[in-house]
Structures are given as C-alpha cells and as structure tokens.
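Anyone opening a protein record will find just a pair of labelled lines. The record below illustrates this layout.
***
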Amino acid sequence: MTQVKICSQCKETKNVKEFTKLKRSADGLKYQCKDCISIWNKRWRDKNLDKHREDSRKWYELNRQRALEVKKEYWKNNKEEIQARRYSYQLHANRLRDNCLKEQCPEWADLSKIKEVYDLARSLTKETGIQYHVDHIEPLRGKGSNGLHVHYNLRAIPAKQNLSKGNRLGG
C-alpha cells in the first residue's frame, strides 16, 4: 500500500516520497512537498539575491573540500552532457564571431591576403612553439572603433599579447 500525505501548501495528496524528512514532526516528514519548498526557496532567492550570494560564498569557504568533491562527482556522472553543452556554447560563439567577420569584411577585401595573415600565424605557432593569433589592429567592435576585416588591419601576434589587449586599439 502506497503511503500518501497532503501538502499544507498546495493541498494536494502526494506520495510520501515527495516530502523530505523532518524528525520533529509526528510522521517524520516536512509539512510541505518538495515542489512547494522549491518554489518558496526560488522566490526567497530572487528577493534576497545579495544575502543568498553572501551565504553561498560563506558556505563554500567553510566547505570548500566538500564542494569540490560534489563538483567532481557531478562531472563524473554527467561528463557527456557537460561536454555537449560546452561544444554547443563554443559553436554559438564561433557563429557570432563568423557573423561579425562577415559583416565587417567588405566586398572589395583581398581574401587571399587575409588568408596569408592566418597562414603566417599558423606557421609562427609551428616554428616557435608559441601560440599565435590573428589580431585586428583596430577592433571590429569596441568603444569608438569599427574596424574592418581586411588584410591591412590584421597582424599575427603572440596569443598572450592578443588576449591581454582585449577589444582595444594597438597593444
């Protein structure tokens, strides 16, 4: 026989598995079902976002090892899903960048010279063992700039330098 209980919040009759434990109650279960508690918790978090973040940060500091173990276990059990999500994000970012390049590449651009700059970056990476990127001297998008994707706005520079430059001129 399946045991049931009425939730004091939503007034629905549910299986006892839908309730969490509470030792001090007569039946050893909380009065509200898991769904109602989850809704209440979400509303509280939304209203008290700063307090929630602070409490979470404090908990993490006190339970860092436990948090890392939980994270590691989650990764182990959901590896394929996490990798698929990362791949999806990467594809989306690449699509956005490709669209930006297409928008900023005029019809008159010399595509063979643009390809030469990318080939140079690849060959410098192979020769030196240091990762090289193709940098837009004047960024395609940025404060007060609207550079073009043309060969004379491109240069091969070490990746570290390019990443530290960000979306700014020169560097």
